[in-house]
Amino acid sequence: MKNCLASISLAVLVAAGSMFGCEPEDCEKNHTGIISMENTSGDVFYLIVDGENTGKVYPFDTGRAVVDVGEHYVEIKNEGGGDVCQPITVYVDECEVEGMCCPICD
After folding, report:
1. What is the DSSP letter of 2?
2. Distance separating alpha carbons of residues 21 and 19, to the nearest angstrom
3. Number of other residues whose CB lies within 10 A of the CB of residue 45
4. Which residues are CB-neighbours of 77 under 8 A, at least 6 positions away?
5. How many angstroms separate the CA atoms of 67 and 50, rounded?
6. 72, 78, 79, 97: which has the fewest Cβ within 10 Å?
7. What is the DSSP string of 61-103?
8. Beta strand 32-39 with 97-102: parallel, antiparallel or unpaired?
9. What is residue 105's three-state secondary structure?
10. Phi, psi for 33 (deg, rounded to 5)
11. In what order do the strands lie in the sheet with 6-10?
12. This prediction's pTM
């Protein structure tokens, strides 16, 4: 298993809001943020947040999960269920986008 999940904190949801289909007021009202994972490989991955499969992330695409403010355990699995990158724990603030790349960021 590679230790290759890079975490990049992006605190500007206002600019990213239209990309994610939500407005800043929504995250403030709902006390949520976003975990975003860029798949930099040619394989399909699954973004798993707190043990819940949030969906497929296709090659060279980005998967997103709206989460409550707080600490979250993030795993990236392949179609066979194996770990693609080392699981990590991230803290997501209100209206924050916690971005990561797997297997590597450019």
Report:
1. B
2. 6
3. 24
4. 45, 46, 48, 83, 84
5. 10
6. 79
7. -EEEEEEESEEEEEEEEETTS-BSB--EEEEE-TT-EEEEEES
8. parallel
9. coil
10. -140, -170
11. 6-10, 97-102, 32-39, 62-68
12. 0.75
Q: How far apart are the first and last CA of the chain?
A: 20
Side chain identity at 34, as an amino acid letter?
I
Q: pLDDT tens, 8-66?
A: 333 333 334 444 455 556 899 999 999 999 999 999 999 999 999 999 999 999 999 99
List all residues 6 or more positions away from 27 whose beta carbon is below 8 Å from its beta carbon. 13, 33, 34, 94, 95
Residue 103: name the closest of 50, 55, 12, 42 by CA: 42
Structure tokens at 82: 């194996």
| β-strand pairing of 6-10 with 97-102 | antiparallel
